[in-house]
Design brief:
Helix content: over 70%
Mean pLDDT: 95
Number of strands: 0
Low-confidence stretches: none
Structural class: mainly alpha
Radius of gyration: 54 Å
Length: 129
């Protein structure tokens, strides 16, 4: 009877250990499942980050292309500003030439008028004689 009491005690301890082991196995399985889920989340986040990195890289390239176009346009504008300034200078020179020619024409017109008056006066004197 002592042996069977000992047996029952050992069986009780064994059953308790088995329950503890089963509980620990369940907890380990839960932890493993949680770790697997976290690994999947991390993998998804890594894919999202890689995608974002490629978008950022594409945006940077687009910005660089636009900066290059802007720089080229600014160079063309500076070039056209130079041409415009040169054209304005030439127009100013032509305006000065035209003003000088107008002054010369006005002087000649006044000379012609003076000559006509002189001729008319002479004709008048001749007709009186």
């Amino acid at each position: 009877s002592l042996i069977s009491a000992e047996r029952r005690s050992v069986q009780g301890v064994t059953a308790k250990h088995n329950r503890e082991l089963a509980n620990k196995a369940r907890r380990l399985a839960n932890h493993k499942r949680q770790l697997d889920e976290k690994d999947q989340e991390l993998a998804e986040k890594s894919r999202q980050l890689a995608h974002k990195d490629s978008l950022i890289s594409a945006e940077r390239q687009s910005v660089q292309e636009k900066e290059l176009l802007l720089s080229q346009n600014q160079a063309r504008l500076r070039e056209k500003d130079g041409v415009l300034a040169d054209n304005k200078r030439r127009l100013d020179e032509k305006d000065q030439e035209l003003a000088e020619k107008s002054r010369q024409l006005a002087r000649k017109d006044s000379l012609i008028l003076a000559e006509r008056r002189s001729v008319q006066e002479k004709e008048l004197l001749l007709s009186q004689n």
